[in-house]
Design a protein that fits this description.
alpha+beta, two-stranded antiparallel sheet, 5 helices, elongated
Length: about 130
């Protein structure tokens, strides 16, 4: 959807004789910078199903791992909370995390379009 919005804006600006200045940002290591209390509070404020909020919280904050080989299994251990880098869940959670910043992105004078860790900021001038 963001690509369609940007393409339409650039085309419409071209038709009006305007130039479009675009800044594209790819945020580095952004999934590891999420504040989990803010994410979970945002999920609650968005009225996301409480069971899903609990599931996400436990998946991120109470992660336990174990190794097994054949019939042998080691004791489970807790690991340090961090995002699920490379997981399909990470972009979705980051979009939820940043919803307060990006919710008005289609109504502003310039545009800020984002999906996960990619942000496009642009403005048209005559």
């Amino acid at each position: 959807m963001n690509a369609a919005v940007q393409a339409t804006d650039v085309y419409d600006g071209f038709e009006r004789g305007e130039e479009t200045l675009i800044v594209a940002l790819d945020l580095d290591d952004v999934y590891n910078r999420i504040e989990y209390d803010v994410l979970l509070r945002t999920m609650i404020n968005l009225k996301i199903i409480p069971q899903l909020v609990v599931w996400v919280g436990e998946a991120l904050l109470k992660r336990r791992v174990a190794m097994w080989l054949g019939n042998w299994t080691c004791d489970t251990r807790s690991i340090t909370p961090e995002s699920l880098q490379g997981s399909p869940l990470s972009p979705v959670l980051f979009n939820i995390y940043t919803v307060g910043k990006t919710s008005g992105q289609l109504e502003s004078l310039g545009r800020e379009l984002s999906f996960a860790d990619v942000v496009l900021v642009y403005r048209q001038t005559g």
